[in-house]
């Protein structure tokens, strides 16, 4: 593991306990498209990083490389000091260490909410059913949907389903949670209930990478904002610095568009 490091400018907020996710000169192409260009990004344990940027800038691809849903062409990614495994059981374990919450909730439709949150614990973490159920119920309570445990996903609102998806990821005791636009498929009145769960997670010290256009969340929960455009990290700053004084023209242009509608 690498030495002690904290996010720039956030010494008070981040416990100084080392780097958890390190991307080193990462490059990826989709055919002729250079979708990730020389990406260097280090995320400290307990840090909350919000990734923003225009559509097509590579935010989702970046998230997907961190749990190896996408391969990379060059560079290196490590989690907790270990390089990403290529395949097999090691890869399954890594995926469990890296919780992922997508825009679409991806719950199993034919399993109950409770079963959805138990499944990975039993299959990947080899927990016994009783332990898995106890933990699932506690997590469902924690995200505010404990009373929905025996329903099927389709019987829940979008906001409730997304909170189940968060509970399901948390059930694996992930080292880091990746959120890719977790609220952008939700009706407006359900966005806050999901953001509040994420705020609480951040306060509890979870390491989080969050792709979102929710600038209120970025301002209140992020230790750092990473701004991407055209496959590159163009700017990194604290939310205060970024929103009040963006340095690049790309960021200024992007902010003027999203903050004025
Ligand atoms: N599997 C794929 N095959 C080919 N091109 C892809 C693939 N996935 C993404 N791309 C392209 O890579 C670029 C970056 O896509 P990505 O989804 O990472 O962007 P994004 O920043 O998440 O955008 P959005 O804000 O719209 O979600 C886009 O031009 C996209 O069309
Ligand atoms: Mg995306």
UniProtKB/TrEMBL annotation:
PROSITE patterns: ABC_TRANSPORTER_1 (PS00211), ABC_TRANSPORTER_2 (PS50893). GO terms for molecular function: ATP binding; ATP hydrolysis activity; ATPase-coupled polar amino acid-transporter activity. It is found in: Cell membrane. The keyword Cell membrane applies. It holds the Pfam family ABC_tran. InterPro entries: AAA+_ATPase, ABC_ATPase_HisP-typ, ABC_transporter-like_ATP-bd, ABC_transporter-like_CS, MetN_ABC_transporter-like, P-loop_NTPase. Keywords: Amino-acid transport, ATP-binding, Cell membrane, Hydrolase, Membrane, Nucleotide-binding, Transport. It catalyses: a polar amino acid(out) + ATP + H2O = a polar amino acid(in) + ADP + phosphate + H(+). One of its GO terms (cellular component) is plasma membrane. Its main location: membrane. It is a peripheral membrane protein. It comes from the Bacteria. Its EC number is 7.4.2.1. Residues 21-255 form the ABC transporter domain. PANTHER family: AMINO ACID IMPORT ATP-BINDING PROTEIN, GLUTAMATE_ASPARTATE IMPORT ATP-BINDING PROTEIN GLTL. Belongs to the ABC transporter superfamily. This is ABC-type polar-amino-acid transporter. It comes from Streptomyces hundungensis. The gene is glnQ_2.
């Amino acid at each position: 593991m690498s030495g002690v490091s904290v996010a720039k400018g956030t010494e008070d907020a981040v416990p100084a306990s080392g780097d958890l996710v390190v991307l080193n000169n990462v490059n990826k192409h989709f055919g002729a498209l250079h979708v990730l260009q020389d990406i260097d990004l280090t995320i400290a344990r307990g840090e909350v990083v919000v990734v923003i940027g225009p559509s097509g800038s590579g935010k989702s691809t970046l998230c997907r490389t961190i749990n190896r849903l996408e391969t990379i062409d060059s560079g290196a990614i490590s989690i907790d000091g270990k390089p990403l495994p290529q395949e097999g059981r090691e890869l399954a374990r890594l995926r469990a260490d890296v919780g992922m919450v997508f825009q679409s909730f991806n719950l199993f439709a034919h399993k109950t909410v409770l079963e959805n949150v138990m499944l990975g614990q039993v299959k990947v973490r080899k927990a016994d059913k009783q332990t898995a159920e106890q933990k699932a119920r506690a997590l469902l309570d924690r995200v505010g949907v404990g009373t929905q445990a025996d329903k099927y996903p389709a019987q829940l609102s979008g906001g409730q389903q997304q909170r189940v998806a968060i509970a399901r990821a948390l059930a694996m005791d992930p080292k880091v949670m990746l959120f890719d636009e977790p609220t952008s498929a939700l009706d407006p009145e359900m966005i806050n209930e999901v953001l509040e769960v994420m705020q609480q997670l951040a306060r509890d010290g979870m390491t989080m990478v969050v792709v979102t256009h929710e600038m209120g969340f970025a301002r209140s929960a992020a230790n750092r904002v990473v701004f991407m455009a055209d496959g590159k990290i163009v700017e990194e700053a604290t939310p205060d610095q970024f929103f009040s004084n963006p340095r690049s023209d790309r960021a200024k242009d992007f902010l003027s568009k999203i903050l004025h509608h």
